[in-house]
Fold these 2 entries.
Entry 1:
Amino acid sequence: MRRRIFALSMIAAALLLFMIAAHAATTQAAPPADTPTGNPGRGAYLFTLAAGCGCHQGAAGFLAGGEAFEGPFGKIYPPNITSDAATGIGTYSEADIVRVLREGKRPDGSQLFPIMPYPAFSGMSEQDQYDLAAFIKTAPAVSNKLPASVYSVPIPPFSPPPQPADAPTGGVARGEYIVNTISHCGDCHTPTGPTGAPDFSKFLGGNTDFGSANITPSNEFGIGTWSQEQIYLLLKTGKRPNGTQVGGLMELVINGGLKDITQSDGFAVAAYLKTIPAVDSAPVAAPPQTLPTTGNVLNQTLLGAMLAFALVLLASGAWLWRSARRVN
Ligand code: HEC
């Protein structure tokens, strides 16, 4: 189960890196606003929309650190993020946690590895980030010391994408915000092209590497015949209109939090999914990919470094997911 969550996080991180690389040259961060105060109640709901911080969950207790993840990029311990001052993040202010979400940086300025999905959370509104941070700060202190992570590859630099002044509250804009920022459905539902980057010409058209479905409005290949209520019920219960139950990664995403999506947000997601272009073909697999053989990612351009990283994350995530399926 936890390996699947690791796999999911890696896949998410990889695909977000692609998106950020693609937009890096044309985007600029929003101007700073007045610092908000987080509301932990609202943060709890954002926590469920993001399917929980599953990597930080383990035997030690709620958010007290997860199982080590070992991959081609080293051995990484999802840290204890409870309010314990000595072994957790009890000394972090809300603003410190927001900086982690927005920039992927610790209070000392060091960059986190993008297995932590800050590339996604970066695009949330500042208020939403403060709310999520306020919720994280309510996690009761648990003393659990983890070893330091070991990185075998360089951590790519990160420029935060534009951030909306306020999170959309309803309708298609709200659905778009949830799908592309908090819940990032495209990480599993969009196929990747020969370079490993998402093939946006088939946005949400399904990717057989992750066993995902075409969720575009195509009547034949997607969910064009589903009503908005049927889409909402799928997100909440995992039940398709024909009565069958979804499994695999989608079941994880639902159990991890989407099951608690509000009716209004569920319908917003459904409304947004109705507006995207129909992809009139079955889900496809990513074409075979090769990692750069010249090796030194540091000497590439920023874009090249991010794409190479994303390839490693994607391949490892897919491998973890496959091996987790064998075990379970
Ligand atoms: C971690 C990967 C992952 C994420 C993230 C994800 N999905 Fe899925 N989704 C899947 C997989 C895999 C399936 C197929 C499950 C099966 O066939 O049992 C699926 C199935 C579905 C289906 C059913 C389609 C059908 O025809 O049966 C819908 C609808 C759906 N997802 C919507 C979404 C939406 C909306 C989001 C974002 C809020 C989302 N998914 C996020 C992996 C994911």
Entry 2:
Amino acid sequence: MAKLPIFGRRKPNESMRIFVVTIIGVVLGFFIGISFPTVSITKLHFSSSIVSYIEDNNSALTAQAILHHVWTTARNVKENDTESTSDTSMKIYVPTNPRGAERLAPGIVVPESDFHQRRLWGNPDEDMPFKPKYLVTFTVGISQKENINRAVKKFSDNFTILLFHYDGHVSEWDEFEWSKRAIHISVRRQAKWWYAKRFLHPDIVAPYEYIFIWDEDLGVEHFNAEEYIKLVKKHQLEISQPGLEPDRGLTWQMTKRRGDHQVHKVTEERPGWCTDPHLPPCAGFVEIMAPVFSRDAWRCVWHMIQNDLIHGWGLDFALRKCVEPAHEKIGVVDSQWIVHQVVPSLGNQGQSEHGRAPWEGVRERCRKEWGIFQTRMAEAEKTYYEMIGVPPPNVTFIH
Ligand SMILES: *[C@@H]1O[C@H](CO)[C@@H](O)[C@H](O)[C@H]1NC(C)=O
Ligand SMILES: *[C@@H]1O[C@H](CO)[C@@H](O)[C@H](O)[C@H]1NC(C)=O
Ligand SMILES: *[C@@H]1O[C@H](CO)[C@@H](O)[C@H](O)[C@H]1NC(C)=O
Ligand SMILES: *[C@@H]1O[C@H](CO)[C@@H](O)[C@H](O)[C@H]1NC(C)=O
């Protein structure tokens, strides 16, 4: 935008202009220095008129106009300053503002953002006649294109669609009409929780009442997102997932779909698996492949996600720390259900080492992360209880 002469294209007769501007700059600096030692340069008010001067023409005349403007502005600031510096209460400092923004008047502080797309023209108020209320993200590779297309169609216009591309293929998705209004974030070979930590900060996704953070290999034939949200609201689920069709690769009883229920919040596991019926994996538990978070629950869960533990293993057992009471606010929606197709697509983005298949290295890393996460959580809680001088409660983790 702001092209000052010295950076512009140099036509032969411009050397003179540059010279003039430089001299004027030096003189101005000198006068500001001697005339207004108390005026901080940050107080110089660069109004929109100065910007248009800069944009106009690279002439010495323009430079002079700029100087005149700065000069008069500085003089005004100085005059008003003599009154205001005697009264330090005129300085803005608002401790309740977000950290680091205390010097701003609260009315100008915008602590949250969104993924709403705006026009480049027109009246900002009228950019969006309609704002989506929910967010769904899929972590995708191009080989699951058709499956994702089917899935996206189960989400109404009330959803913002955000794709995390782990294979670098982005433009290929434009064959779908919805892709043109979706948000695409492309970073190669990263895992779902890596993207979630970096691009779904709670202040960025704050406008969305519910956030779906889904894998790409889910069969959605029997799923409708609007119906799902109705049930989640009705049963006050802060963290949830659709029931899984009993199929191959089913790990936990909790997430298995029950044909005779709308939702369920507790289950029975194999004998000895649950030390407490209100704790995972018998309650307070969903898996990490297709979780749905309320805005408030996500604000907590985001803080629990570790930057270096990208596979999210163990996170499912800790989700309960974010809602209270967990065995009532975490649950599985049975009447809107999905099929986990178990396509090891991201697993194949690993690296072949010591003659092993790429997915083996990924799987090993997943297990390792689970252990690291458990240790960190246990130590953090131990430190906390020590700090407040209370013996820690018995921890009941399944290992
Ligand atoms: C900029 O300069 C060009 C020629 O050098 C002139 O035609 C044009 O009107 C000038 N623009 C402004 C805004 O002064
Ligand atoms: C200085 O104060 C006068 C009168 O209160 C006001 O008109 C003028 O705009 C002020 N100048 C600046 C630079 O704020
Ligand atoms: C979007 O949400 C509104 C309000 O909850 C609802 O009335 C409308 O039916 C939803 N749109 C679709 C396509 O379901
Ligand atoms: C904690 O566990 C130990 C041994 O498993 C048991 O003896 C003790 O009573 C438990 N404490 C509480 C508060 O449950």
